[in-house]
Fold each of these.
Amino acid sequence: MSQTTSVQFDSVSRVFPHCRAVDNVSASFEGGQIHAILGENGAGKSTLMKLLFGLLQPTEGQIRIRGEVQHWKSAGDAIGAGLGMVQQHFALVDSLSVIDNIMLGYESTSALGVLNRGEAIRNLEKNRQSAALQLDWHQRVEELSVGEKQKVEILKLIARKSQILVLDEPTAVLSPKEIDGLFAILKSLRDQGRTVFVITHKLGEVFDHCDTWFVLRAGKKTGQGSIATARLDDIVRAMVGTDVPPLDSRRPAVTGESRLTFSNVSILEAAHPVRDLSFELKAGEVLGVAGVDGAGQSEIVEALLGLRSFAGEIEVLNCILKSSPTPNESAVQLTRLRELGLALVGEDRHQQSLWLDESVEINAAIGFEEQNQLVKAGWIQRGAWREAVLRWLNSFDVRFNSLELPVARLSGGNQQKLIFARELLGRAVRLLVVHQPTRGVDFAAIRLIHERIIAERDRGTAVVVISSELDELMALSDRILVLCAGRATGHFYREPTSAPFDREKIGVAMTDAAASRSTQQERRA
Amino acid sequence: MRFFSFYVTAIAVALGFILALLLTAFLGENPLDVAWVLIRGSVGSSTAFGYSLFYATPLIFTGLSVAWALKAGLFNIGAEGQMTVGGISMAIVGILLQDLSAWLAWPLALSAGFMAGAFWAWLVAWFKVNRGVHEVLGSILLNFVSYGLAGLFILNVFRNTESANPETLEIGSGFHLSTLEWLGGTSPLNIAFFFALAFAALIDLLIRRSKIGLHLSWTGGSPEFARRSGLSISKQTIGAMMISGGLAGLAGASVILGYMHKAREGFAGGAGFVGIAVALLGRGNAWGVVAAAVLFGCLQKGSLDLDIDTENISRDLAVVIQALIVIAVAARPVFERPIRNWVDRRNKAVN
């Protein structure tokens, strides 16, 4: 294991017209280790990595790789110098095989121009070192799971002889078991002497698997150290700037009438079909829905909004939904549900929950203007609107410079808080549906959003939280329903102990082998 | 932000003018002379200015029409056709009810024009919502149908056989809109110009202050969010297109009720298409549309004198200028960024 300095930043700054994205950062990273790069959204992590890759040039300072000052001008130079990156969104050609994807752009051919797949495979077999990196080389990429696709990306870097690997939020789309598998691979790469950077915000993984930690806040380095001697509090303080109190211990759920019922619901005409799903949600409890992305969560949300046709029966706030509504019927039905107290926080907030070009003021109340009497006889009541919006935004601690600014200019956390404020305040909410409550949201905002979700539950609201972050679900839920490939594969109840849910069992249910195999067969049939 | 946007548009307009005037230099004219002819011809006398406003009147209506549809994310390229059917309907009402007095005739004719235009646009919306026909395709095809329909009424059903021109019989005198001598001298400028301003005020109020306007621009600005909040996109589409079509349907009022007092073939004269440029230049703001329409009206009038007062260029220069302005406005991003950076730097220096 080499202990030489692999990457060194010397007083590196990168200035954009509006901000210093990276501000006078000096740090050195040892070779042959796994380094966790931590920080809230917008802290400058991606900018720092782009500087490392030569995708951006530093305004001040320099970057040294193995002691040599780096002068390259493009990612191509960086790859040539032994750097490799796995983006959050994979760059794979779905219709090609695993080996073709790995060779793409670096094809070795025989004299006649025929692809030399055999030789490429032999080289890989020799270099991959870890049994965990075994794949069927000739399978098409579209048939692979998310975790396997990630392995293909890593194999691409190995084939290109990358010595320094950067992975951007690699675990966001993985189940707990796949996460362990990924880090096993990364550790084997480390043991071969490679240097690995993992950009993440999940502290659990950092403590379990990484060697060092490094935190950026607002472009400045706020902490760095070895995991062996690290304390959780120190890292959190470096990320947030203050101490974060732990979530208050919750009182047991007091449940009431039924607010949402799925009875044998199937949603078949969908990208991710749902089959034979039944559950009931009562007033005053939080139901968590776990599962990796694309297990049918979006379809379930659209069905309960009445925007999708389904088989079986769905009852929302004592209304039985039409099973195949026309667009106009859906609109009338959904308007009725919203009047009855349905609140919704969408999965993709830019598309589904915000009108990005419009002002903060409009976004903070639109859709509920009639219920909140901000519109009278068809005319907007400007004074009442502004006054209500200011009250709501303050109550959710939304930070903004001006009410007139487009909502797109707010940070992710403030946007999400604004959406919660709009959906929850000013009217009687009886059912709250939250899809990905804290995706791309900073630490402080996560804390506030979690508190408000629990407060809603204590007020007697029925809450559905759908999230791919298991930690989040275990913190919030009274019950957890696990989905895998469109089927319910587990149902877990909160235990009144220090570990209320069995993480391992939930993880197994999320990747239920039987369920995924049967749907694959159906798809082929 | 709003003021910034106004300045950038103003710069784009100026750029278009300057480029066009430089072109005249290549044709052997003095650009300053050409500019002077344009200015004198459009605002040099009350009659000249009256003509400019007269030309601007239909452009205000069609500009508002296109802008309203754009708010909902719809590109109504069929204002020309909607104007045509609206104008024909006004003429038909006026021909059939010869003896109606003005206080009944005016609202009746305007309603007929609005409803005919709205119906024409409703067809487009219906095909889009129920059959998935894109509104650009639907509206441009219906333009051709409207020309045929207009020809049928003008050349056959209501043709004035005494006249050598392809035109209809005269409308009743109660339908004649009053001309405005105090403002427009001997030009045919008539009260329809003020109707147009009233509609601009109404549209401005609706867009900024009403639930209808808010939901219209919500549908256009963030359709998936609107749909998930219980808005019916199909209803919004139909409503937006009908109002858009109705506005275009009114565009013929100034020419038919206020000037010709009959319908002549080709009375729309491309105002529906120029309305698209007017809406773009007005940037979806009702008063911006009015300003852009008056600018284009002035251009149209001013360029008429070019035929007489210059050697080498004709009134077609107006079209060249219009085109260059539209291109400059469309190319806003090219010079918007440097200006924004400059403003930011200056602000920073002041702070």
Amino acid sequence: MYHKPYVILGIVAFLILLAMPYWVTAGNIKYEDIHKELAQPKGVNCIKGVKWMSSYHMELLNEWREAAVRDGIRKYPTDNGVFNVSLTECWKCHDYENYCKKCHEFMEVRPVCWDCHYNPSMEMPTVNYLNK
Amino acid sequence: MSGVLYIFYVLPYIAIAIFIAGVIYRIVNWANSAVPLKIPTTAGQQPCFRFIRRTWIDKIDSPSNKFWAFVRMIFEVFLFRSLFRNTKYYVEKAGKNADTRWLWVFAILFHYSLLVIVIRHLRFFTNPTPKFVSLIEYLDGLVGVAIVPPLLMTGVLALVGLAFLWGRRIFLAKERCISLPSDHLILFFMAVILVSGLLLRYVVKADLSYVKMFALSIITFHPPSPEVLANLHWLFLIHFTFVCITIAYLPFSKVMHFAGVWFSPTRNMPNDNRMRRHVNPWDPNPEVPILARVGITVDGHVFKCKKLDWDTYYEMYKDQLDEIAENNYVLKPEEL
Amino acid sequence: MSEVPEKLEIKQKFPLWKKWLKPVTEKDYKPGFYSYMALPKQVNSDFFKMPFGDVVREPLEKDWKLPENWKNIVLNEMKDTLEKNRAFKVFMDICVRCGACADKCHYYIGTGDPKNMPVMRAETVRSVYRYHFTPFGKIFGDWAGARPLTEEVIKEWYYYMLQCSLCRRCSLFCPYGIDTADIVWWTRRILSRIGINQRFMCISIEASARTGNHLGLYAGGMAGAIQQGLEELKDITGFELHTYINKPGADVLFVAPSADYFATPHWYVMLGYLLLFNELEERYGITVTWSTYASEGGNFGTFHSYEAAQLLNSKIYKEAERLGVKFIIGGECGHMWRDKHQFINTMNNLPKNEEWRRFWEDPDLGQISGGLKGIRLDEFISGEHGWIHILEFVAALIEHKKIDIDKSRNDHWKATYHDPCNVARGMGMLEEPRYVLRNVMNHFYEMPEHTIREKTYCCAAGGGMLADELMELRMRGVMPRMMALRYVVKKYGVNIMLTPCAIDKAQFPVAVEYWKIPVEIGGPMEMVGNALVLTALGEKPEDRKYDLRGTPIREEE
């Protein structure tokens, strides 16, 4: 093999780049079964089916926002009953800290909701959600 | 049933193993070949007398030492320096050349979008997720923040880049002609991955908590529970499978240009031929030219030339050379 | 010479890959585009013996009389090339066929033949590489763009490898630096192993291997030619000038392409050299000698194979050592400077004489003459190479005010400068000739920016393409350069194109005649010779009445 030092350096650089997930976290990757750690919801039925809700809740909330703010619609009938169009409706069953926030943090999702809205874990609504 | 799903858990390991082994094999394979000559393509003013002006771009394009050659490589790899020079020739306009940087623009767009996309995907593979990943995602989504979830521009730009790069291979006669099936294949893989990824984010949504648990199980070598596998979305599985296939295919494909470009002697060698002698590893001591020393052996026959050294030469043209010597090696206009 | 039609048409058809994988064979060869093959007297001579060169081969005949075992030989040679040359291997593997190189090739622009796109030229080799050296190619065959090696493929290689002038313009634009010249050069080497050689380049290679120069000039002939130059200079300047040849103990060895001894307009450049050397000797006592043994700067071996190149350029360092010179000045030539800049000190051992060693310890021209103190060659050259280009040398002399120049003597010329491809892209000498020209003449204009400097267009006759049978290819390939030239001729009234390249000087006079552009061709050293005031010999600026072409400098009153 010619130019051995350069080639080895190149291969090492390549491997280091591949191992990115490990060194950006300083080797600190925790496997977590998040579903076991989330607080169990209190109610029986969610607004729609559980499976649908877990994938599409952000769309529902988005729909709710427009319905409530633009059209003044405050009631939302589904197969599972009639629900208030409000975030507090969620918190009736779900614990914000141990359910919503926990999972969002696990997923590294930062909803824009709290730019304007109050949530149970904050003193004041903030406009800059990057600062928590 | 759930047992079968473990295929998806094994798949990435196989793909990555093929990828790593393949890439290293290719790199070592290239490194095993000798570099007989120092042949940089000099794309700027050479190192020269100090009074000749050399701009910094000359120093990069015609590097005078290893450091500048390294800078040239960095420019080549990260900014596509050579593609940036691209021109188009117009036969019909009396041979007018014009800068055409479209290929450069879309190539840059495509490659960097993919890079950001890969970095963004770190949020699935790390727990807790580092700050910079969230920052990149936040910046990526700034333009499309009005949409829920925020529209990440790199996803769209990568698709636009891909459409351009594939479109030119389909619609332009010249590019269609030079394209091989493998050129379309890799673009097809990229298209499937990009489209399925975009669909997953914006249209056909999956329960991402399971996706992340699955990703973490891969990266931490912690086999996932059957529940996690059972809850993976079908579209995600398509996305994931194609990613694995692509990763495994990379070492055999033209995508190896990412490693090969570092081995390109026209780019990675400094233009310092006149400062430092380059030694040819298979001809390190060329006192006599190969053809006159050992000749070339083909199919068992040796073809060797006669050596024209000074003595042979002198013997051959003795009279004429002696005449020159008699005149004291001086040439003067003849007396008329 | 093959006839070139008055009107050239470019008809383009772009076949899909399956179609172009079918090789172009002797049946499709077009006159004006294929080269003759070398005769036994060229490739089976004592001084240049190539494998299986003892057979007369006709490109247009079906039977190419390949050696029995040709397939094995080619595949073995290909394997050997892949191991011996990393560039070849990497370039086989990493092309993504983006097409950035396509319309950069002057032959593609001029002929419109899709296989003349650099990417396709290389693809004709790559397809065979894929079939025989990669697993995918073997399994998927033409679906992987692979095809087996057949006699037809060899014919296609011969056709297209010999429609490339090794100008490396494509390598400049390739995002991975893929150098088609390198692929072509090494493929020609593979072809030479089964007895396939181009006649034009082999005539010169053989002559140079036997006599020391491409023209096959014997020592006496060369000396006579230079002597004739001195006589002409006596008529022009009125001075009795002299020069040295084969002189042991000279300070400097001068090596020029052999065309300079005879051909026009190369001739005027040689007169320029002679004037400069006389002035330098008279003023500074620096002696420059020619050599009949190392009488060739050019190296047609660089069109053929590594070994042939080495065979030809091996003489020069040997001669430098024998004569005991301190360094070497090289004349105006294009591919010569690819060879002399990038190849020669790898292909040969350096001179071991004492003078050389001592000079390069502190390479200040002050060592030779106190008057030249301050011109330091180690700013970019070392004793591991020892060559300086005549234009670099002149640029330094002008900058340090060591020679006297009368610019007005060139006022009857309006010049433009053509960068020879190898000087631009194989060496990087872009600014020095311009520096010299701006200092020796008042009217100097650049051609459009995309056609000069590192982006320069080839004259379409380099790399062995100067053969007469390739006339149509040459006239088509030179089209981009001619269009650029026509532009400056119309815009500025340029009447001379200067180029420090012997092949350019041979090709352009034919080309400008064909393309009907009223312009002369010359070399920068001719302009230097015109403007150089021989102060040391007692010449005054206004003394010179004629330029080196013998035309009056100033209009008669």
Amino acid sequence: MSPLESLRIAARALRVNKLRSALTVLGIVVGVGAVVCMVSVGAGAQAEVSEKIRTLGANLLLVMPGARNSGGARLESGTQPTLTVEDAASIRRELADVQVAAPLLSRSLPLVAANRNWVTVVAGINPDYLVAREWQVASGRLFTSDEIASGAKVAIVGAVIVEELFNGGPGIGETLRIGNVPFTVIGVLDKKGLGAAGRSQDDVVFIPLSAAKSRVLGAVRGTTREALDFISIKVSDTTAMSEIQRDVEALLRQRHRIRGDAPSDFRVENPADVLFARGAAMRLLAGLLIAVAAVSLVVGGISIMNIMLVSVTERTREIGLRMAVGARRREIRWQFLIEAAILALVGGLVGAFLGAAAAVAIAWKAGWPVLISPWAIVLACGFAGFIGISFGLYPAHRAARLDPIVALRFE
Amino acid sequence: MQPLVRTVGISKSYPSGGTIVCAVSNVSLVIEHGEFVAIRGRSGSGKSTLMNLLGLLDRPDSGTYAFNGREVAKLSEDGRATVRSHDIGFIFQQPALLPRATALENVELPLIYAGIPPSRRRRKARDALDRVGLGDRGHHWPNQLSGGEQQRVVIARATVNDPVLILADEPTGSLDSATGNEILSLFEALHREGRTIIVVTHATEVANRARRLITLHDGRIVEDSSASSDNLRPAALSMGSLP
């Protein structure tokens, strides 16, 4: 008997009991679906992390103001201005591997352009900041040193701002009111996409730090004009990140006159590390889910074995009849083995399809790139087929071992 | 020409309820090509076991069995399956059709295992159904057919591969007498075509149709209507001229 013939007979037997066949493969469907989904989500999350690290600038350290003791009360991190422009300048000056140390001061402020308005992050920077972030203008120009020195009312905006306030138009030369102060747009930035916190990085307005302090933010804050939100440090040697991190810490502790083991009033962070840790956690979670999925595959295999055993018993007379008219034992064995394999493979394919669909849905919801791994599909379906065949072996063996006389008399 | 069936002292015993029952004991039997033989006996006389042995569904414990000139008593399971698929057609008591296959597919079954390619298979199966008068019912399911029609499908299946031996076990057991007679007429027609038929039955009307009657009792042949007569010539030759 040809293999095609065996396949036809097996497919026919499965079609007879459609609902039962469908329920039998559910375990395999869930198992394969979960594996494909998790591998794809894991890959997507990984790609997302890499992409964020890339847009952030891989060789970036952040110095943020930390908690400060004020008369015995520990004040919340960031509430007290502890970092100054002078700190930034001295980091740049004193540490060899630091390429750029860019101070940044930002606030959420209402913007008005013509008859449109928008609330977004307005950040006072020096051109160094854009160097640190490896960020270029798509059109227009950067701040000149004159503009920085004089606190000129000029702004460089992100792509989202152009969209929201200037109707997607060029935007260059337009007037933008920040708070109540009119600024002239001189540049539009390259698109960066979503940032680490899930917020669009392009939804931002940059103005000279001096202008921010003197014209916009100083009035809002009512605090010292020297205060900074954070300092971005671009390092020339990425292999020395942690050393430089220590050096920056030592330098700032010295500058802030923090002695011995007293806590620092600032934090030095490596954002890439945070993202890497998040990626690793995501991979671990996906790995655990894949392990659960593997268990589900085995359970699915057991359910196939169970139903195949029931089927062999139910069809004892059929088996006897087939043997009487000339079916050899191996032909009976193949028939049942192929049935089990078809069950598992169909379950695997349905599972792969559902898993891929789920992965697309999750990626879409989370804003990740969709990465359906063809290897995950091939491997999961292959494993499902392997499970089907190995758990089908025993029932098929039982069917083939039947004595035709006994099987024919079976009621 | 070798006789179709020649057994010498075959025996078969089964364990049953703690004791060993000798179902067939020391049976020696010669059946020529073209004979129409009825094996008769009460239930428990061993006639079903003898049929299983003659049909190569089972293997004797002792004795020798030459089927169509070939020694088959020691043949493996698969070897016997091959002989069954090519040379023997079985007619069982009902229900003996696959319920989830059409009449045509049921008739095709032996051809599948004999390795006949699909197109020729379909043609042969149609011809076989035509011969039993069911040419137009090929696509019916077994449960759409009457008992007599079902048994005719079984006969079509038993003859589809041109077997040298047709074995029937109580072929009219579950049919009313009129339908039973139709089936028996089919058997006689098959016999006239020169086929060798062995029927196992306890019904006298079935036994009466046969040309030779063997009676079993406690696993032994106690009577053989032709054993003493000399007309052991191939029945096909002598019966060819009968109406």
